[in-house]
Hints:
Elements: E1 11-12, H1 22-28, H2 38-55, E2 61-66, H3 69-80, E3 86-91, H4 94-105, E4 109-114, H5 123-132, E5 137-141, E6 143-144, E7 149-150, H6 156-162, E8 166-170, H7 182-185, E9 189-191, E10 204-209, H8 211-218, H9 231-238, H10 250-266, H11 268-288, E11 292-293, E12 304-308, H12 315-326, E13 328-329, E14 331-332, E15 342-345, H13 353-367, H14 373-383
Parallel strand pairs: 1-13, 3-4, 3-5, 5-8, 8-9
Antiparallel strand pairs: 2-10, 6-7, 9-10, 11-12, 12-15, 14-15
Pyridoxal-5'-phosphate is lined by residues 16, 68-70, 73, 95, 141, 143, 145, 170, 172-173, 193, 202.
Amino acid sequence: MNRPADIPERLLMGPGPSNVAPSVLEALSRPTIGHLDPAFLVIMDQVQEMLRSVFNTDNPFTIAVSGTGSAAMEAAVDNLVEPGDRVIVGVNGVFGTRLVDMAGRAGAEVEALEFDWGTPIPIEAVEEALKRKPADLVMLVHGETSTGVMQPVEGVGALCHEHGALVLLDCVTSLGGAPVLLDTWEVDVCYSGAQKCLSVPPGVSPLTFSDRAVEKLESRKQKVPSWYLDMSMIRNYWGENRAYHHTAPINMIYALHEGLRLILEEGLEKRWARHLRHAEALWAGLEAIGWEPFVGQEYRLPPLTTVRPPAGLDEKEFRGRLLEEHDIEIGGGLGPLAGQVVRVGLMGASSTPESLLRFLSATEALSGAPEGAAVDAAEHLLAQEGV
Length: 387
Ligand SMILES: *Cc1c(COP(=O)(O)O)cnc(C)c1O
Protein backbone atom coordinates (compact mmCIF):
# COMPACT_ATOMS: atom_id res chain seq x y z
CA MET A 1 0.00 0.00 0.00
CA ASN A 2 2.83 2.35 0.80
CA ARG A 3 3.41 3.69 -2.69
CA PRO A 4 1.85 6.38 -4.87
CA ALA A 5 -1.56 5.63 -6.42
CA ASP A 6 -1.56 3.89 -9.78
CA ILE A 7 -3.37 6.21 -12.23
CA PRO A 8 -3.84 5.12 -15.86
CA GLU A 9 -3.77 7.51 -18.81
CA ARG A 10 -7.26 7.72 -20.27
CA LEU A 11 -8.90 9.55 -23.10
CA LEU A 12 -11.99 10.97 -21.38
CA MET A 13 -14.89 11.01 -23.84
CA GLY A 14 -17.77 10.44 -21.44
CA PRO A 15 -20.26 12.89 -19.92
CA GLY A 16 -17.48 14.36 -17.75
CA PRO A 17 -14.85 14.63 -16.44
CA SER A 18 -13.04 15.66 -19.61
CA ASN A 19 -9.28 15.64 -20.08
CA VAL A 20 -7.42 18.40 -18.28
CA ALA A 21 -4.76 20.52 -20.00
CA PRO A 22 -1.21 20.18 -18.60
CA SER A 23 -1.08 23.86 -17.59
CA VAL A 24 -4.25 23.41 -15.51
CA LEU A 25 -2.71 20.40 -13.71
CA GLU A 26 0.41 22.47 -13.21
CA ALA A 27 -1.63 25.32 -11.69
CA LEU A 28 -3.23 22.81 -9.32
CA SER A 29 0.21 21.79 -8.03
CA ARG A 30 1.42 25.29 -7.13
CA PRO A 31 2.03 26.14 -3.45
CA THR A 32 -1.07 26.53 -1.33
CA ILE A 33 -1.43 30.00 0.21
CA GLY A 34 -3.99 31.41 2.66
CA HIS A 35 -7.58 32.11 1.69
CA LEU A 36 -7.21 35.73 2.86
CA ASP A 37 -3.71 36.27 1.45
CA PRO A 38 -3.82 39.45 -0.67
CA ALA A 39 -2.26 37.49 -3.53
CA PHE A 40 -5.12 34.98 -3.38
CA LEU A 41 -7.73 37.74 -3.30
CA VAL A 42 -6.30 39.03 -6.60
CA ILE A 43 -6.71 35.54 -8.09
CA MET A 44 -10.34 35.44 -6.88
CA ASP A 45 -11.06 38.81 -8.48
CA GLN A 46 -9.59 37.59 -11.75
CA VAL A 47 -11.64 34.39 -11.59
CA GLN A 48 -14.81 36.45 -11.12
CA GLU A 49 -13.92 38.70 -14.04
CA MET A 50 -13.17 35.75 -16.32
CA LEU A 51 -16.34 33.93 -15.25
CA ARG A 52 -18.39 36.99 -16.25
CA SER A 53 -16.77 36.89 -19.70
CA VAL A 54 -17.43 33.18 -20.15
CA PHE A 55 -21.05 33.50 -18.96
CA ASN A 56 -21.50 36.66 -21.07
CA THR A 57 -22.89 38.61 -18.14
CA ASP A 58 -22.19 41.77 -16.16
CA ASN A 59 -23.64 40.26 -12.96
CA PRO A 60 -21.59 41.52 -9.99
CA PHE A 61 -22.54 38.33 -8.10
CA THR A 62 -20.50 35.79 -10.05
CA ILE A 63 -18.45 33.30 -8.03
CA ALA A 64 -17.11 29.75 -7.84
CA VAL A 65 -18.96 27.46 -5.42
CA SER A 66 -16.85 24.99 -3.41
CA GLY A 67 -18.14 21.66 -4.67
CA THR A 68 -19.13 19.97 -7.92
CA GLY A 69 -21.93 21.06 -10.28
CA SER A 70 -24.61 19.63 -7.99
CA ALA A 71 -23.41 21.91 -5.18
CA ALA A 72 -23.84 24.96 -7.41
CA MET A 73 -27.22 23.57 -8.49
CA GLU A 74 -28.31 23.21 -4.88
CA ALA A 75 -26.92 26.65 -4.06
CA ALA A 76 -29.02 28.13 -6.88
CA VAL A 77 -32.18 26.34 -5.74
CA ASP A 78 -31.77 26.75 -1.97
CA ASN A 79 -31.03 30.48 -2.19
CA LEU A 80 -33.77 31.38 -4.67
CA VAL A 81 -36.61 29.19 -3.44
CA GLU A 82 -38.58 29.92 -0.28
CA PRO A 83 -41.10 27.50 1.22
CA GLY A 84 -44.41 27.86 -0.61
CA ASP A 85 -42.91 29.42 -3.75
CA ARG A 86 -44.34 28.12 -7.00
CA VAL A 87 -41.65 26.70 -9.27
CA ILE A 88 -42.02 25.41 -12.84
CA VAL A 89 -39.37 22.91 -13.97
CA GLY A 90 -38.83 21.66 -17.50
CA VAL A 91 -38.20 17.92 -17.22
CA ASN A 92 -36.82 15.93 -20.17
CA GLY A 93 -33.99 14.05 -18.52
CA VAL A 94 -32.07 13.28 -15.35
CA PHE A 95 -31.08 16.83 -14.49
CA GLY A 96 -34.57 18.31 -14.77
CA THR A 97 -35.67 15.48 -12.47
CA ARG A 98 -32.90 16.44 -10.03
CA LEU A 99 -34.09 20.07 -10.06
CA VAL A 100 -37.61 18.93 -9.19
CA ASP A 101 -36.21 16.94 -6.26
CA MET A 102 -34.12 19.87 -5.01
CA ALA A 103 -36.93 22.43 -5.39
CA GLY A 104 -39.29 20.11 -3.48
CA ARG A 105 -36.75 19.71 -0.67
CA ALA A 106 -36.49 23.52 -0.50
CA GLY A 107 -40.24 23.63 0.14
CA ALA A 108 -41.45 24.75 -3.28
CA GLU A 109 -44.78 23.86 -4.80
CA VAL A 110 -43.35 22.29 -7.96
CA GLU A 111 -44.97 21.89 -11.35
CA ALA A 112 -42.95 19.58 -13.59
CA LEU A 113 -43.43 20.18 -17.32
CA GLU A 114 -42.61 16.70 -18.57
CA PHE A 115 -41.56 16.08 -22.15
CA ASP A 116 -40.08 13.06 -23.89
CA TRP A 117 -36.42 12.36 -23.21
CA GLY A 118 -34.54 13.35 -26.36
CA THR A 119 -36.77 16.34 -27.14
CA PRO A 120 -36.59 19.93 -25.83
CA ILE A 121 -39.18 21.75 -23.68
CA PRO A 122 -41.41 23.87 -26.00
CA ILE A 123 -41.36 27.52 -24.89
CA GLU A 124 -45.14 27.61 -25.46
CA ALA A 125 -45.53 25.03 -22.69
CA VAL A 126 -43.71 27.36 -20.28
CA GLU A 127 -45.92 30.24 -21.40
CA GLU A 128 -49.11 28.20 -20.91
CA ALA A 129 -48.02 27.13 -17.44
CA LEU A 130 -47.27 30.74 -16.46
CA LYS A 131 -50.63 31.89 -17.80
CA ARG A 132 -52.49 29.11 -15.98
CA LYS A 133 -50.94 30.08 -12.66
CA PRO A 134 -48.19 32.64 -11.96
CA ALA A 135 -44.88 31.26 -10.67
CA ASP A 136 -41.90 32.64 -8.77
CA LEU A 137 -39.24 30.73 -10.68
CA VAL A 138 -38.87 28.77 -13.93
CA MET A 139 -36.03 26.22 -14.16
CA LEU A 140 -34.61 24.82 -17.39
CA VAL A 141 -31.62 22.66 -18.27
CA HIS A 142 -29.66 24.14 -21.18
CA GLY A 143 -27.53 21.07 -21.93
CA GLU A 144 -29.32 17.91 -20.76
CA THR A 145 -26.34 15.58 -20.38
CA SER A 146 -28.50 12.49 -19.91
CA THR A 147 -30.10 12.82 -23.36
CA GLY A 148 -27.81 15.10 -25.40
CA VAL A 149 -30.51 17.72 -26.00
CA MET A 150 -29.69 21.43 -26.13
CA GLN A 151 -32.66 23.47 -24.94
CA PRO A 152 -33.51 26.56 -27.04
CA VAL A 153 -33.66 29.46 -24.56
CA GLU A 154 -33.98 32.59 -26.67
CA GLY A 155 -36.94 34.60 -25.41
CA VAL A 156 -37.49 32.56 -22.23
CA GLY A 157 -36.07 35.25 -19.93
CA ALA A 158 -38.29 38.01 -21.31
CA LEU A 159 -41.31 35.71 -21.18
CA CYS A 160 -40.71 34.79 -17.53
CA HIS A 161 -40.07 38.39 -16.51
CA GLU A 162 -43.29 39.47 -18.23
CA HIS A 163 -45.09 37.03 -15.95
CA GLY A 164 -43.17 38.07 -12.84
CA ALA A 165 -41.04 34.92 -12.61
CA LEU A 166 -37.27 34.57 -12.36
CA VAL A 167 -35.50 32.10 -14.65
CA LEU A 168 -32.80 29.57 -13.76
CA LEU A 169 -30.66 27.81 -16.37
CA ASP A 170 -28.43 24.76 -15.81
CA CYS A 171 -25.35 25.31 -18.02
CA VAL A 172 -23.17 22.59 -16.51
CA THR A 173 -22.50 20.92 -19.86
CA SER A 174 -22.95 23.88 -22.20
CA LEU A 175 -20.69 26.52 -20.62
CA GLY A 176 -17.47 26.72 -22.65
CA GLY A 177 -18.78 24.28 -25.29
CA ALA A 178 -21.80 26.03 -26.82
CA PRO A 179 -23.09 29.62 -26.85
CA VAL A 180 -24.19 30.80 -23.39
CA LEU A 181 -25.40 34.42 -23.49
CA LEU A 182 -26.88 35.08 -20.08
CA ASP A 183 -27.52 38.82 -20.31
CA THR A 184 -28.96 38.60 -23.83
CA TRP A 185 -31.24 35.77 -22.72
CA GLU A 186 -32.15 37.60 -19.47
CA VAL A 187 -31.28 34.60 -17.31
CA ASP A 188 -31.35 35.30 -13.55
CA VAL A 189 -29.57 32.29 -12.09
CA CYS A 190 -27.03 30.12 -13.83
CA TYR A 191 -24.46 27.58 -12.71
CA SER A 192 -21.98 25.23 -14.30
CA GLY A 193 -19.33 22.69 -13.33
CA ALA A 194 -15.58 22.52 -13.80
CA GLN A 195 -15.13 19.08 -15.35
CA LYS A 196 -17.28 19.35 -18.45
CA CYS A 197 -16.41 21.92 -21.14
CA LEU A 198 -14.18 24.00 -18.85
CA SER A 199 -11.81 20.99 -18.63
CA VAL A 200 -10.83 21.62 -15.02
CA PRO A 201 -10.89 18.75 -12.48
CA PRO A 202 -14.21 18.45 -10.60
CA GLY A 203 -14.52 20.39 -7.35
CA VAL A 204 -15.40 24.04 -8.02
CA SER A 205 -18.45 25.32 -9.86
CA PRO A 206 -19.34 28.67 -11.44
CA LEU A 207 -22.51 30.39 -10.18
CA THR A 208 -24.01 33.75 -11.10
CA PHE A 209 -27.08 35.72 -9.95
CA SER A 210 -28.64 38.68 -11.76
CA ASP A 211 -29.56 41.77 -9.70
CA ARG A 212 -33.15 40.49 -9.70
CA ALA A 213 -31.98 37.21 -8.16
CA VAL A 214 -29.88 39.05 -5.56
CA GLU A 215 -32.96 41.11 -4.67
CA LYS A 216 -34.94 37.90 -4.17
CA LEU A 217 -32.14 36.57 -1.93
CA GLU A 218 -32.04 39.79 0.10
CA SER A 219 -35.81 39.87 0.59
CA ARG A 220 -36.09 36.29 1.92
CA LYS A 221 -38.25 35.95 5.00
CA GLN A 222 -36.49 32.77 6.09
CA LYS A 223 -32.82 31.89 6.27
CA VAL A 224 -31.35 29.85 3.42
CA PRO A 225 -31.81 26.22 4.59
CA SER A 226 -28.21 25.22 3.84
CA TRP A 227 -25.52 26.91 5.97
CA TYR A 228 -22.62 25.85 3.70
CA LEU A 229 -24.30 27.13 0.55
CA ASP A 230 -25.83 30.31 2.00
CA MET A 231 -24.93 32.92 -0.60
CA SER A 232 -25.98 35.78 1.64
CA MET A 233 -22.90 34.92 3.75
CA ILE A 234 -20.62 33.71 0.93
CA ARG A 235 -21.16 37.02 -0.86
CA ASN A 236 -19.27 38.67 1.97
CA TYR A 237 -16.18 36.60 1.21
CA TRP A 238 -16.25 37.04 -2.58
CA GLY A 239 -17.31 40.70 -2.15
CA GLU A 240 -15.54 43.65 -0.53
CA ASN A 241 -15.75 42.51 3.12
CA ARG A 242 -13.67 39.38 2.59
CA ALA A 243 -15.30 37.88 5.65
CA TYR A 244 -14.29 34.28 6.38
CA HIS A 245 -17.13 31.79 5.82
CA HIS A 246 -15.39 28.54 4.90
CA THR A 247 -11.87 27.91 3.65
CA ALA A 248 -11.80 28.30 -0.11
CA PRO A 249 -10.45 25.26 -2.05
CA ILE A 250 -7.33 27.30 -2.88
CA ASN A 251 -5.63 25.04 -5.42
CA MET A 252 -8.89 24.29 -7.19
CA ILE A 253 -9.34 28.02 -7.67
CA TYR A 254 -5.85 28.16 -9.23
CA ALA A 255 -6.92 25.40 -11.61
CA LEU A 256 -10.15 27.16 -12.50
CA HIS A 257 -8.21 30.38 -13.07
CA GLU A 258 -5.92 28.65 -15.57
CA GLY A 259 -8.83 26.81 -17.23
CA LEU A 260 -10.72 30.08 -17.75
CA ARG A 261 -7.58 31.79 -18.99
CA LEU A 262 -7.15 29.10 -21.66
CA ILE A 263 -10.79 29.52 -22.74
CA LEU A 264 -10.50 33.28 -23.17
CA GLU A 265 -7.15 32.89 -24.91
CA GLU A 266 -8.79 30.56 -27.44
CA GLY A 267 -11.81 32.88 -27.77
CA LEU A 268 -15.39 31.89 -26.97
CA GLU A 269 -16.68 31.93 -30.54
CA LYS A 270 -13.77 29.83 -31.77
CA ARG A 271 -14.25 27.41 -28.93
CA TRP A 272 -17.98 27.00 -29.65
CA ALA A 273 -17.18 26.45 -33.35
CA ARG A 274 -14.53 23.86 -32.43
CA HIS A 275 -17.01 21.88 -30.32
CA LEU A 276 -19.63 21.95 -33.09
CA ARG A 277 -17.20 20.98 -35.85
CA HIS A 278 -15.84 17.99 -33.93
CA ALA A 279 -19.34 16.89 -32.93
CA GLU A 280 -20.42 17.00 -36.58
CA ALA A 281 -17.44 14.87 -37.56
CA LEU A 282 -18.31 12.39 -34.79
CA TRP A 283 -21.93 12.20 -35.99
CA ALA A 284 -20.82 11.63 -39.60
CA GLY A 285 -18.41 8.89 -38.53
CA LEU A 286 -20.91 7.05 -36.35
CA GLU A 287 -23.71 7.27 -38.91
CA ALA A 288 -21.38 5.83 -41.58
CA ILE A 289 -21.19 2.58 -39.59
CA GLY A 290 -24.85 2.35 -38.66
CA TRP A 291 -24.95 4.04 -35.25
CA GLU A 292 -28.11 6.12 -34.97
CA PRO A 293 -28.05 9.53 -33.23
CA PHE A 294 -30.76 9.63 -30.55
CA VAL A 295 -31.57 13.36 -30.88
CA GLY A 296 -32.75 15.21 -34.00
CA GLN A 297 -29.94 17.29 -35.52
CA GLU A 298 -31.70 20.58 -34.68
CA TYR A 299 -31.54 20.00 -30.92
CA ARG A 300 -28.22 18.17 -30.56
CA LEU A 301 -25.84 19.30 -27.83
CA PRO A 302 -22.39 19.50 -29.45
CA PRO A 303 -20.36 18.57 -26.33
CA LEU A 304 -22.37 15.39 -25.65
CA THR A 305 -23.78 12.96 -28.18
CA THR A 306 -26.24 10.17 -27.39
CA VAL A 307 -26.29 7.42 -29.98
CA ARG A 308 -27.93 4.01 -30.40
CA PRO A 309 -25.46 1.24 -31.25
CA PRO A 310 -26.36 -1.11 -34.13
CA ALA A 311 -28.68 -4.00 -33.28
CA GLY A 312 -26.93 -6.92 -31.63
CA LEU A 313 -24.10 -4.92 -30.11
CA ASP A 314 -23.86 -5.22 -26.32
CA GLU A 315 -23.21 -1.61 -25.33
CA LYS A 316 -21.93 -2.49 -21.85
CA GLU A 317 -19.36 -4.93 -23.18
CA PHE A 318 -18.40 -2.40 -25.85
CA ARG A 319 -17.75 0.30 -23.26
CA GLY A 320 -15.78 -2.13 -21.10
CA ARG A 321 -13.49 -3.15 -23.96
CA LEU A 322 -13.12 0.45 -25.10
CA LEU A 323 -11.75 1.31 -21.66
CA GLU A 324 -9.64 -1.80 -21.11
CA GLU A 325 -8.20 -2.24 -24.58
CA HIS A 326 -8.15 1.34 -25.85
CA ASP A 327 -8.05 3.48 -22.66
CA ILE A 328 -11.08 5.44 -23.85
CA GLU A 329 -13.93 6.26 -21.47
CA ILE A 330 -17.46 6.94 -22.72
CA GLY A 331 -20.75 6.86 -20.79
CA GLY A 332 -23.74 4.55 -20.74
CA GLY A 333 -27.39 5.56 -20.87
CA LEU A 334 -29.10 6.86 -17.71
CA GLY A 335 -32.56 5.98 -16.39
CA PRO A 336 -34.90 4.83 -19.18
CA LEU A 337 -32.02 5.11 -21.67
CA ALA A 338 -29.83 2.57 -19.84
CA GLY A 339 -28.83 -0.13 -22.32
CA GLN A 340 -30.38 1.87 -25.19
CA VAL A 341 -27.72 4.47 -25.95
CA VAL A 342 -24.13 5.35 -25.22
CA ARG A 343 -23.04 8.89 -24.41
CA VAL A 344 -19.97 10.26 -26.15
CA GLY A 345 -18.51 13.53 -24.92
CA LEU A 346 -16.25 15.89 -26.85
CA MET A 347 -15.74 18.49 -24.16
CA GLY A 348 -13.05 21.12 -23.73
CA ALA A 349 -9.56 19.63 -24.06
CA SER A 350 -11.11 16.31 -25.17
CA SER A 351 -12.69 17.93 -28.23
CA THR A 352 -9.92 17.35 -30.76
CA PRO A 353 -9.71 15.63 -34.16
CA GLU A 354 -7.22 13.15 -32.66
CA SER A 355 -9.58 12.04 -29.90
CA LEU A 356 -12.63 11.63 -32.10
CA LEU A 357 -10.68 9.74 -34.79
CA ARG A 358 -9.09 7.50 -32.17
CA PHE A 359 -12.54 6.75 -30.76
CA LEU A 360 -14.02 6.04 -34.20
CA SER A 361 -11.14 3.76 -35.14
CA ALA A 362 -11.55 1.79 -31.90
CA THR A 363 -15.32 1.65 -32.47
CA GLU A 364 -14.84 0.20 -35.96
CA ALA A 365 -12.58 -2.49 -34.57
CA LEU A 366 -14.81 -3.39 -31.61
CA SER A 367 -18.08 -3.42 -33.57
CA GLY A 368 -16.86 -5.36 -36.60
CA ALA A 369 -17.38 -2.42 -38.99
CA PRO A 370 -15.22 -2.16 -42.13
CA GLU A 371 -11.85 -0.64 -41.23
CA GLY A 372 -11.75 3.09 -42.04
CA ALA A 373 -15.48 3.50 -42.72
CA ALA A 374 -16.18 5.77 -39.76
CA VAL A 375 -12.79 7.46 -39.75
CA ASP A 376 -13.03 8.32 -43.46
CA ALA A 377 -16.47 9.88 -43.06
CA ALA A 378 -15.28 11.99 -40.14
CA GLU A 379 -12.08 13.02 -41.91
CA HIS A 380 -14.07 13.96 -44.98
CA LEU A 381 -16.18 16.31 -42.87
CA LEU A 382 -13.14 17.73 -41.07
CA ALA A 383 -11.52 18.47 -44.44
CA GLN A 384 -14.44 20.62 -45.57
CA GLU A 385 -13.90 24.36 -45.43
CA GLY A 386 -15.84 26.52 -43.07
CA VAL A 387 -17.89 23.79 -41.40
C1 LIG B 1 -22.88 16.94 -14.55
C2 LIG B 1 -24.13 17.72 -14.45
C3 LIG B 1 -24.62 18.19 -13.22
C4 LIG B 1 -24.03 17.81 -11.90
O1 LIG B 1 -22.69 18.09 -11.75
P1 LIG B 1 -21.74 17.22 -10.80
O2 LIG B 1 -20.42 17.89 -11.03
O3 LIG B 1 -21.80 15.81 -11.28
O4 LIG B 1 -22.22 17.37 -9.40
C5 LIG B 1 -25.73 18.99 -13.24
N1 LIG B 1 -26.38 19.31 -14.38
C6 LIG B 1 -25.94 18.85 -15.57
C7 LIG B 1 -26.69 19.23 -16.81
C8 LIG B 1 -24.81 18.05 -15.64
O5 LIG B 1 -24.39 17.59 -16.82
